[in-house]
Specification:
CATH topology of the largest domain: Nucleoside Triphosphate Pyrophosphohydrolase
Number of strands: 13
Shape: globular
Radius of gyration: 20 Å
Oligomer: single chain
Length: about 290
């Protein structure tokens, strides 16, 4: 086990196992053939052609595409093929700041293999003996990564909301942090990764923030997604990451990005070049 293995775990997939998901002449995602077979039950919306999954070209704008696809995904959810449901819309686009081609339920993103976006917020505390980070323990009854360690605050980036609006919203929901404090968060980095998952493909970009908190502040979960918060020295966090898989996999990317400028992972580490090259690699091109 190692830092490098933690990063590698978020950068592994075989493109030959996926079909291009096409909207017009654009590849908008990478979809497993098994899921594509479910979608083509609705032949007026989805078709297979030349080893590609095609959205009906007669659906010519955002509204038409969104409205046509939504009931299909709802039906697949009702059938248990899409097990989770978030009731939040994700944009289907090539990058964060371009007009989306349509919107889909967040739970379907990995099934379609579209790009997803999220915010992760480090809750940092400066003490006399060094820097500490608030770590969330995910609820043990959560359907995804139950009981694993997570950032203090993290959430998907839905459509129609700015990054800072999402930072403020998620901070309140997950840690009861008021707007006047949450709005002080500063963006640290942007990290992209692409990894095979049980549902399809996680092709995500994380917008990462540092929020410095006073020593007497304690986060309190308000949405039931966290069992407890632990204030952890960075050195202890580094030890857990390097020796175990206790952290949710994509959180390791955010943590390692924090440990490098903190001087805990340095250029003297034997895997430093491999870690940083992969950690800061650009989003894959479709």
């Amino acid at each position: 086990m190692s830092y490098l293995e933690r990063v590698q775990a978020c950068h592994q997939f075989d493109r030959s196992e996926y079909l291009d998901f096409m909207i017009g002449d654009e590849i908008m995602g990478l979809t497993r053939p098994q899921f594509a077979q479910q979608l083509i039950r609705w032949e007026n919306v989805f078709q297979l052609k030349n080893n590609q999954l095609l959205l009906n070209p007669d659906l010519i704008n955002f509204e038409q595409r969104t409205q046509a696809v939504a009931p299909i995904m709802e039906q697949l959810h009702q059938e248990g093929i899409i097990p989770g449901w978030v009731d939040e819309l994700y944009a289907v686009s090539h990058c964060f700041d371009e007009p989306p081609r349509m919107a889909v339920e967040r739970a379907t993103a990995s099934f379609l293999g579209i790009r997803g976006y999220g915010v992760h917020i480090n809750g940092l505390v400066q003490k006399s003996d060094g820097i500490y980070n608030w770590v969330a323990v995910r609820s043990r009854d959560r359907g995804f990564c139950p009981g694993q360690l997570d950032q203090m605050v993290a959430g998907g980036q839905g459509i129609g909301i700015s990054l800072m609006e999402n930072v403020i919203k998620e901070s309140k929901e997950e840690a009861n942090i008021d707007k006047d404090i949450a709005s002080q968060a500063k963006q640290r980095s942007t990290l992209s990764y692409c990894s095979a998952s049980s549902h399809g493909l996680s092709m995500n970009t994380l917008f990462n923030y540092d929020l410095w908190l006073p020593e007497d502040f304690t986060p309190v979960n308000t949405d039931g997604e966290v069992d407890e918060f632990i204030l952890m020295p960075l050195a202890k966090m580094a030890e857990i990451i390097d020796s175990s898989e206790k952290f949710k996999s994509n959180c390791n990317l955010v943590n390692i990005d924090l440990l490098i400028p903190a001087g805990i992972i340095t250029a003297s580490h034997p895997d430093f070049n491999a870690i940083t090259t992969l950690l800061y690699s650009p989003a894959i091109k479709l």
